[in-house]
């Protein structure tokens, strides 16, 4: 099953590349650099999904004390940090030719950097505590508190004056983007979600094996 | 308007290296744990 998921993710990523570089047109204002969005936007949506699963796993563990919930939270947290890192790096590379700078202390960028640091801290905490029950309990508390950052990141462009553009996909209004660009984004989002599901399954399997040894 | 392909390739290149490295890390860790388990069983 995990292997099938892996191959589906590979196929999805190939379709995503074809959609982003072959099907989607060159964006009229930004030019080719806009194609970074087919990586940047799915990466941040995957990171959101991962951190929501950390929240679900943390609540599940505190409610039931079953180690499976803790394994879910730990695996999702690690992969969430990976995808948040990709979001920040790809956004920074896009920002240089578009905004003229690699980084600015804009509300969206700063809140995303804080989100990244919170979940790096979550992983550090997990690595510092030896006792599995205490580790799961403390990590669950941080996993629940850390989730407060997710809406802050998402709504930061509405709550504060920001250089970053407002949401075009998860916004309340109908998306104004070209249908071909929207389709390329959708294909890449599906591909990243499949890749996330594959990584999550493998990481949870590792956590299960670690518990047995 | 400049083509900016260098930035696009840099972003996708970094993403590809990062994701492949993580995949290799998971594969190595799984192999290491799988080989450790039978050895532990034999020792028991």
Percent in strands of chain B: under 5%
Largest interface: A-B, 27 and 25 residues
Number of domains of chain A: 2
Q: Main β-sheet of chain B, in a few words?
A: none
**Rg over alpha carbons of chain A:** 18 Å
Q: Regions of chain A with pLDDT < 50 over 5+ consecutive residues?
A: none
Structural class of chain A, by secondary structure, is: mainly alpha
Total strands of chain B: the figure is: 0
Shape of chain B: rod-shaped
Individual helix count of chain B: 1
Q: How does the overall form of chain A come out from the CA principal axes?
A: globular
Oligomeric state of shown chains: heterodimer
N-to-C series of helices and strands of chain A: HHHHHHH
Number of strands of chain A: 0
How does the helix and strand content of chain B classify structurally?
A: mainly alpha
Number of helices of chain A: 7
What string, H for helix and E for strand, traces the elements of chain B in order? H
Total domain modules of chain B: 1
Overall residue-averaged pLDDT value of chain B: 85
Question: Can you tell me about this structure?
Answer:
The complex is a heterodimer of chains A (213) and B (44). Chain A has 213 residues and is mainly α. Chain A has seven helices and no strands. Chain A has two domains: 1-24 and 169-213; 46-148. The model of chain A has no long low-confidence stretch (mean pLDDT 92). Chain B has one helix and no strands. Chain B is mainly alpha-helical and 44 residues long. The termini of chain B are far apart. Classes of the chains: A mainly alpha (213), B mainly alpha (44). The A-B interface holds A 31-33, 35-36, 39-40, 43, 82, 85-86, 89-90, 93-94, 96-97, 195, 199, 202-203, 205-206, 209-210, 212-213 and B 1-5, 7-8, 10-12, 14-15, 18-19, 22-23, 26-27, 29-30, 33-34, 36-37, 40.
């Amino acid at each position: 099953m995990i292997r099938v998921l892996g191959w589906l993710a590979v196929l999805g990523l190939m379709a995503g590349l074809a959609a982003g570089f072959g099907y989607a047109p060159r964006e009229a204002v930004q030019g080719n650099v806009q194609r970074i969005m087919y990586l940047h936007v799915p990466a941040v949506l995957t990171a959101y999904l991962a951190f929501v699963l950390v929240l679900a796993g943390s609540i599940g563990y505190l409610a039931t004390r079953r180690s499976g919930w803790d394994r879910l939270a730990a695996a999702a947290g690690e992969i969430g940090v990976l995808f948040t890192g990709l979001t920040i790096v790809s956004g920074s590379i896009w920002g240089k030719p578009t905004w003229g700078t690699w980084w600015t202390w804009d509300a969206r960028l700063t809140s995303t950097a804080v989100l990244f640091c919170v979940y790096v801290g979550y992983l550090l905490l997990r690595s510092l505590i030896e006792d599995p029950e205490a580790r799961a309990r403390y990590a669950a508390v941080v996993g629940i508190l850390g989730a407060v950052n997710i809406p802050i990141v998402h709504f930061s462009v509405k709550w504060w004056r920001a250089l970053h553009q407002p949401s075009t996909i998860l916004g309340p209004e109908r998306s104004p983007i070209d249908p071909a660009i929207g389709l390329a984004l959708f294909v890449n989002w599906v591909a990243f979600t499949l890749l996330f599901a594959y990584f999550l399954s493998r990481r949870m399997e590792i956590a299960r094996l670690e518990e047995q040894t | 308007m400049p083509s900016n392909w260098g930035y696009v390739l840099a972003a996708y290149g970094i993403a590809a290296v990062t994701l492949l490295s993580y995949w290799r890390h998971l594969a190595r860790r799984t192999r290491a744990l799988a080989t450790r388990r039978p050895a532990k069983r034999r020792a028991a």
